Amino acid sequence: MAQSISNGWLSARPTDQIAAIVHSDGDSIAHVGTGLAQVFSRDFPDAQDIERRGDGPRRILWISHSQRSAMIDLAEAATWPGNSDPRGSSSFLAHDLLFLADLGISYVHIHLPVLMSNTDLGIGLLSGLSHITLAYNSSIDVLSNALHKARSALGTMALYVTYPHDQDLLGLAGLARTWQRSGLDPNLAHLINKDMATFAHNLDQAAQVRSSSLLNAEPTLTFEGVGGGLGKIFYLLKAKLDLIGQNLVLPPEADIYIYVTDHLELNVPRGLQVVAEHAESLGVPVVLVAAHTQLVRGELPGLGVHGLYRLPTESEPFHTQGLEELGARLASTWGWDT
Q1: GO:BP terms for this protein (predicted)?
Q2: Residue 141 in contact with residue 104, Cβ under 8 Å?
Q3: 20 to 30 Å CA-CA from 60: which of 10, 20, 98, 217?
């Protein structure tokens, strides 16, 4: 897609220089996925894919042995499809992490969906790493011991956890209501919320047993409910958590920035925000290109965006001719000479 749009731009302005940055907003798109596999393969040319099934969803582990790095995309593998019981076990993720540890992997990027299937608030993950059988009503002492053993099992492995956007209703307390708003049966949401309340309280107390300052560093854990509660578990396992796009690396200088994405609805991608903030510091425009969006032009200034275009939809998602025509149109409208 980037190549086609670039070719179109250069057909109108052949002397311009274009830098194309491959990035993912982290949402899973039907028949396409999230695109994170392509990003990982670009960053790690020796990347190999290993299919895992086990006791969880079918998923692909992407591994670079030379850089001792790996990526697990759970947004692509386990995004909650709606209208179904999201409960399950996250123990498969413990098995994956221990498998990677045995391979000598020292850095793992895990991408979580906001709402996930195989949800158990991370009990299966914590049980699998600590080898302690846990339940929603496990005591504070048992959970404290499990957190300690789980961290020890990971050794020096660094975990980097991303997610596409915050929950509409933050934290574990809002997770069941977020599910309900998204179509989950209210009675089932109520049952899940009852389990969450006891577990979340005891987990917070267990974390403070080990470190009284651990939870004080983030008074509002906006990410704790993502991945069906895995965000909170990973935080307690000392993972680094970020909105995907937070660390997007951009060309330091440009005359225009063009952000291309599939859809933009209520949740604005962090990557677009980063681009808009950087462009504003340079005093240059930002143009948004999207296949699907409910934004109207009057809303663009509030996002730091100066133009909005639609991706072509002829026959195939990435229609080459239409993309090249779009690139030429962008160049004719936004290109200029000083």
Answers
A1: organic acid phosphorylation
A2: no
A3: 20
Token output for 67:
């850089």
CATH at 164: 3.90.1510.10
| Overall pTM > 0.70 | yes
Task: Write down the pLDDT at residue 215.
Answer: 47
Of the pLDDT bands very low, low, confident and very high (cuts 50, 70, 90), residue 171 is low
DSSP assignment of 26-85: ---BTTTB-SHHHHHHHH-TT-EEEEE-TTS--EEEEEETTTTEEEEEHHHHHB--SSS-
Are residues 11 and 144 both part of a single domain? no
Query: How far lies 336's CA from each of 13, 15, 16, 194, in Å?
Result: 9, 12, 10, 60
Tell me: the pLDDT tens digits for 179-224? 888 888 888 888 888 878 888 888 988 988 766 544 444 544 678 8
Cα–Cα distance between 1 and 5 in angstroms, integer?
Answer: 6
Give the total number of structural domains in the chain. 2
Same-domain pairing of 89 and 210: yes
Nearest to 60 by CA among 40, 80, 86: 40
User: Tens digit of pLDDT for each residue in 51-75?
Assistant: 998 788 999 999 999 999 999 999 9
Three-state SS at 264: strand
Q: Specify the pLDDT at position 8.
A: 95
Q: Label residue 287 left, alpha or beta by phi (over 0 means left) and psi (-120 to 50 means alpha).
A: beta
How far, in whole angstroms, is CA 306 from its chain's centroid?
26
- What residues does 156 pair with on adjacent strands? none
Residue located via tokens 């470190």 = 211
Regarding whether 41 and 9 lie in a shared domain, the answer is no
User: Can you give the residue range of the structural domain that contains 11?
Assistant: 2-23+251-332
